[in-house]
């Protein structure tokens, strides 16, 4: 049996833009029929640590990640369990994360109405991501792309899938939930059992998973 995980959520612990307490996140995930969620608070690992401890008490799997803000937009980081300073250059982020065997996925790359994204990072340089993606060789170092984000227009997700195809990397899904009602609006279905941070990292490296939206 597979494992359904929302890979992109935020809590009040480390994301000032979130209104969702850790317990609310877990309760919402259970209601949506998820097998687990990954907490990816902005810049900091504390929210993921706190929620994971609570998840153990409540008998619900919580995985840890960080949403890093780079000079080229937001990135979802897995397998690197430390705070990440805002504005870090994307080359530096990839180097640090890859050095410890972690992974870097572009978060909502075509999002233009919220936080930083690859599209906005390219626009600041006078480029268009959909046309000029070859200009930045570093994009080849990305391990994947968030191709289904629960809070962006569907066309932005379509473009994200096209970018993943061009880069020949896998796509994942996550709700980008900042409130309980957003949890599970997108997720990733893994073909194997995922029960720990190590399992999640291994499953992301193995491939064979697929983003899904919505979660019923």
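Sequence proposed for the structure above (216 residues):
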């Amino acid at each position: 049996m597979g494992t359904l995980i929302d890979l992109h959520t935020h809590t009040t612990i480390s994301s000032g833009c979130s209104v969702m307490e850790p317990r609310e996140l877990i309760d919402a995930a259970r209601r949506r029929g998820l097998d687990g969620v990954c907490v990816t608070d902005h810049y900091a690992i504390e929210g993921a640590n706190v929620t994971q401890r609570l998840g153990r008490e409540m008998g619900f799997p919580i995985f840890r990640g960080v949403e890093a803000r780079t000079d080229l937009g937001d990135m979802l980081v897995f397998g690197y369990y430390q705070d990440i300073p805002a504005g870090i250059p994307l080359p530096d982020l990839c180097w640090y994360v890859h050095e410890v065997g972690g992974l870097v996925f572009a978060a909502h790359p075509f999002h233009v109405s919220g936080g930083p994204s690859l599209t906005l990072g390219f626009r600041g340089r006078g480029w268009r991501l959909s046309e000029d993606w070859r200009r930045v060789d570093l994009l080849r170092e990305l391990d994947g792309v968030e191709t289904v984000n629960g809070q962006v227009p569907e066309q932005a997700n379509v473009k994200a899938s096209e970018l993943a195809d061009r880069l020949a990397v896998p796509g994942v899904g996550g709700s980008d939930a900042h409130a309980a009602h957003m949890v599970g609006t997108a997720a990733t279905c893994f073909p194997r059992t995922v029960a720990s941070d190590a399992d999640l990292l291994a499953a992301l490296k193995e491939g064979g998973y697929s983003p899904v939206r919505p979660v019923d």
